[in-house]
Write the C-alpha cells for this entry.
Amino acid sequence: VQLQASGGGLVQTGGSLRLSCTASGGVFRLNVMGWYRQAPGNQREMVATITDGGRTNYADSVKGRFTISRENAKKTVYLQMNSLKSEDTAVYYCNARTNSALVNLWGQGTQVTVSS
C-alpha cells in the first residue's frame, strides 16, 4: 500500500491551498487518515486527523483555518488550508493507519511555503 500526496506549493500569507492524499493497493481498512507537518529544526507534529466515521481532530494552531475531509470509497484524504500564515511553512506528510496501528503508512511529503 502506498500513499501519494499532492497539492503543496508556494502561497502568500492569507492564501489557501488544498492537499490531497490517496492510498493505493492493499485491502486494509484505513481507519484513521491524517496530516502531519515538520518544519526545519522542529519535530513532526499532528495537524489534523479524521476517522472513517468522520470524527476529526485538529491541532490548536490550525483550528478554524484548516479543514480535513475524506472520501472512503476513494481512500483519499484532503486538507483545505485557508488563512495561511508563515508559521504554516513545513513539509506536510499524509498518514493512514488501522485502529491497531499494525498498518501505519506515510506519504512522501509535500512542501508548503507561505511567504509574507
Observations:
- The first strand starts at residue 2 and ends at 6.
- The mean pLDDT is 94.
